[in-house]
Amino acid sequence: MTSDEATRLAELLDKMRAAILAGNLGALAPLGRAAEQLLAEPVPMTQAEAMALREKAAQNLACLAAAGRGIRAAQRRLVEVREAVTGVMSVYDAHGHRAACAAATSLIQRL
Question: Superkingdom, according to UniProt (predicted)?
Answer without folding.
Answer: Bacteria
